[in-house]
Every structure is written in structure tokens, then in C-alpha cells.
């Protein structure tokens, strides 16, 4: 009898447990992503990023229309008391921007549920945030909007912009796009603006004109100390400045780089003027780190560069053109290229490089005039030439 009672109790417990398992809700996967606002409306996503210990924070936000197209974005460094403070300040900046530019029908989303509740209720128990919450409440009442909560995964762009402003070493102060553009354009603008601001940073990276290249550089000069001469070179490209280019018969050049204009240092640009005498040749060469844009002002040039075939590394494709006055040609970075004056008249050329101090690797000189020299036996086998020819080439290019 006792065993029967024990068995009944165990059975009842087991059945109760099985019933509880059947009543438990089945877990469901939630797909989290940013969603478009209703037709004709806009959505503002904001976020804040706070670095504990130093009070540095970043405010980020992005506004998009009902097609998901960018209206504006911002990434601003700020001083805050907490992450919640940064979240609220980011929302305030975004709302102010909308009001300033006439946007009233928009939704605002934050990924901090705590701050969303503060803004909805219009109050907080944190006395340090009372002023900021009151300001945000007044702004939202002007356009009758209610903040909504979203998951962090749906707020990744704003999160990225906030972290960018809080962690960048160049202390990025302000980035704002007010033009309607694509998300790709926004990213490009962000990168370009960040590079520009990091190179400025309250001053200029100026090259000492009297110092040897890359030696004894004045890396930084305060913006209050610069003058017009730091950004100027008198008659730098005039014909009187042209000098024979070493090892190039019939080629004369004048170059404007960081040695000529101190402010060019780290900006990433060099300009040169060339006079190419009739039938003058610039041997095959490359610029390992830079691209080149060439413009013909007078005369004619035959130019070209080589592109390796992906299917046959033993062969290359020649991309060439005869250029006349007014024509422009671009040589991609690192590609072997050449120039040759066509006709019986000289050619005047302007070159632009995307580097402050461009370097050239001349193919024949690099091979036959290296220091120390490449082994003659190797060169003879590599080029399928007699060693006497290799020796003769060394004499011509050394």
C-alpha cells in the first residue's frame, strides 16, 4: 500500500512536470534590423558613447527618409557625465537639427530603453541629468514626437558615429552632412573629413624648406603662427625654373613638392612641369605608392602603361594613347608606364601626383644600376642575353 502511494505521487509529479514543459512558450527568433519609416516620413536614429574616467563622449546620429536614403548624419565629440547623458545629448542635437531645417514629421529611435523612458516621462531621479531631460522634453513637445526604443543591432550606424567621435585620436569636433546623398557617399565624406581634420588638428604639418628631404622636419606648426609664405611658391613652374632631368636626355622639369611649399607636407599632392624635346623619351618606370595625372599643354606625346594578364603572367596588355594639347591621361598606381615625344616640336606637360614627395622606380636603371649590382649570370639568364650585353647595359645606365 505504501509503495502504491509513493508510485502515485511520483507519477503525479512527472505528469505535472510534463504539463509544465508543454505550457512553456516556444522560443522564437527575432529578426532585428533598421526599418524604414512610413511613406512621407523620416526617421532619426541617435546614440551616445561615453568613455569612463575622462568624461570624453561621442554623439552620433543619422536621419533617413522613407526610402532609406541619407538626409544627414553627425559625429561630435562632447563632455558628458555618463553614457545616459551622452544618449540624451545626441537626441537633443538631432532634434535641434530637424527643427532648424524644417523637419517636423519624423520618428526618433534610441537603443537605450532607460533614456527612452526618461524622455517619455519627462523626468529623471538623476539630478545631473534633470536639465538635459527637461531640454529634450521641451524640444519634443514642439514637434509632438515620442521617442521609440530600438535594439542596438538596428542602431549600428548611429552607434558607429558616436564611437568614432569618442575614440578618434584627432579629437574630431564636428561632422555634418546636410545634402541628400547615398549611404556610400556618406561613408566617403566621413573618411575624407576625418583625414582632413586629423591632418589639421588645430595646426599644420609644415616641411622645413631648408631641411633635407625627410630629415629635420618641422612636423607641426600652430595655426596661429602660419603665414601666406607657408602655402606659396613664387614662379615655381615658370620656364626659368626648368632643370635638366638626370639621366633623361631632352627632358627638363620643375617640381612643386614639400621642399617648395612647406604646407604640402602630408597633404598628399605634388605637381611638376616638363618640357620634352622632340623625340625625347622617358623610360618605362613606375610610382609604387602614387598615381599620376598627366596633362599636355603643348605638342604631342605617345604615352602608355602595362597591365598584366590575369590568365597569363608572361604577357601584359599595353594601354596607350597619343595625346595632344588639352588631353589628360591617368597612370594607375604602381603600373609601369612611359612617355615619348611625337613629332618635331617640344611638348609641354603638367603632372600631378597624389603624394607629397613622389618616388619613381626607373625599370632599366633599377635593374642594371642597382647597388649592389644584381648577379650578371642571373640577368643573362633572366633576359636571355649574353653576359657581354649585360655588361654593356650596366655601363649605359650606371
UniProtKB/TrEMBL annotation:
Family: Belongs to the germin family.
Transmembrane regions: none
Binding site for Mn(2+): 285, 287, 292, 337
Entry keyword annotation includes Ribosomal protein: no
The organism's taxonomic lineage, starting at the top: Eukaryota, Viridiplantae, Streptophyta, Embryophyta, Tracheophyta
InterPro entries listed in its UniProt record: Cupin_1, Germin, RmlC-like_jellyroll, RmlC_Cupin_sf, RNase_H-like_dom_plant, RNaseH-like_sf, RNaseH_domain, RNaseH_sf
Cellular compartment(s): Secreted, Extracellular space, Apoplast
Principal cellular location given in the protein's record: secreted
SUPFAM superfamilies: Ribonuclease H-like, RmlC-like cupins
The protein, known as: Germin-like protein subfamily 1 member 17
Xref: Pfam families: Cupin_1, RVT_3
GO cellular component, one term: apoplast
Keywords: Apoplast, Manganese, Metal-binding, Secreted
RNase H type-1 domain: residues covered: 38-167
Binding site for oxalate: 287, 292
An example molecular function term from Gene Ontology annotations: manganese ion binding
Amino acid at each position: 500500500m505504501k509503495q502504491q502511494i509513493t508510485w502515485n505521487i511520483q507519477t503525479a509529479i512527472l505528469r505535472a512536470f510534463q504539463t509544465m514543459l508543454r505550457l512553456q512558450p516556444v522560443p522564437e527568433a527575432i529578426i532585428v534590423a533598421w526599418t524604414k519609416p512610413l511613406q512621407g516620413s523620416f526617421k532619426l536614429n541617435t546614440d551616445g558613447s561615453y568613455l569612463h574616467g575622462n568624461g570624453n563622449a561621442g554623439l552620433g546620429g543619422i536621419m533617413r527618409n522613407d526610402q532609406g536614403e541619407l538626409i544627414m548624419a553627425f559625429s561630435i565629440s562632447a563632455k558628458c557625465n555618463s553614457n545616459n547623458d551622452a544618449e540624451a545629448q545626441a537626441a537633443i542635437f538631432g532634434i535641434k537639427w530637424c527643427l532648424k531645417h524644417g523637419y517636423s514629421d519624423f520618428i526618433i529611435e534610441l537603443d537605450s530603453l532607460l533614456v527612452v523612458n526618461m524622455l517619455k516621462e519627462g523626468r529623471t531621479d538623476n539630478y545631473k541629468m534633470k536639465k538635459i531631460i527637461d531640454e529634450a522634453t521641451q524640444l519634443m513637445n514642439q514637434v509632438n514626437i515620442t521617442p521609440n526604443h530600438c535594439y542596438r543591432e538596428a542602431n549600428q550606424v548611429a552607434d558607429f558615429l558616436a564611437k568614432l567621435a569618442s575614440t578618434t585620436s584627432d579629437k574630431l569636433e564636428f561632422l555634418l552632412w546636410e545634402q541628400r546623398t547615398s549611404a556610400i557617399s556618406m561613408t566617403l565624406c566621413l573618411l575624407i573629413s576625418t583625414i582632413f581634420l586629423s591632418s589639421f588638428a588645430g595646426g599644420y604639418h609644415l616641411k622645413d624648406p631648408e631641411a633635407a628631404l625627410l630629415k629635420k622636419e618641422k612636423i607641426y606648426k600652430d595655426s596661429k603662427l602660419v603665414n601666406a609664405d607657408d602655402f606659396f611658391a613664387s614662379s615655381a613652374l615658370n620656364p626659368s625654373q626648368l632643370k635638366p632631368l638626370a639621366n633623361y636626355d631632352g627632358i627638363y622639369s620643375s617640381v612643386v613638392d614639400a621642399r617648395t611649399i612647406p604646407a604640402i607636407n602630408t597633404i598628399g599632392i605634388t605637381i611638376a612641369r616638363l618640357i620634352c624635346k622632340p623625340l625625347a623619351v622617358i623610360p618605362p618606370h613606375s610610382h609604387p605608392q602614387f598615381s599620376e595625372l598627366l596633362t599636355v599643354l603643348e605638342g604631342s606625346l605617345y604615352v602608355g602603361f602595362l597591365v598584366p594578364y590575369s590568365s597569363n603572367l608572361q604577357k601584359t596588355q599595353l594601354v596607350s594613347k597619343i595625346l595632344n594639347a588639352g588631353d589628360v591621361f591617368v597612370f594607375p598606381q604602381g603600373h609601369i608606364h612611359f612617355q615619348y615625344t611625337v613629332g618635331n616640336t617640344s611638348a609641354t606637360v603638367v603632372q600631378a601626383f597624389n603624394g607629397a614627395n613622389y618616388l619613381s622606380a626607373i625599370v632599366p636603371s633599377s635593374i642594371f644600376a642597382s647597388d649592389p649590382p644584381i648577379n650578371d649570370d642571373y640577368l643573362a639568364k633572366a633576359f636571355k642575353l649574353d653576359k657581354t650585353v649585360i655588361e654593356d647595359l650596366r655601363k649605359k645606365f650606371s
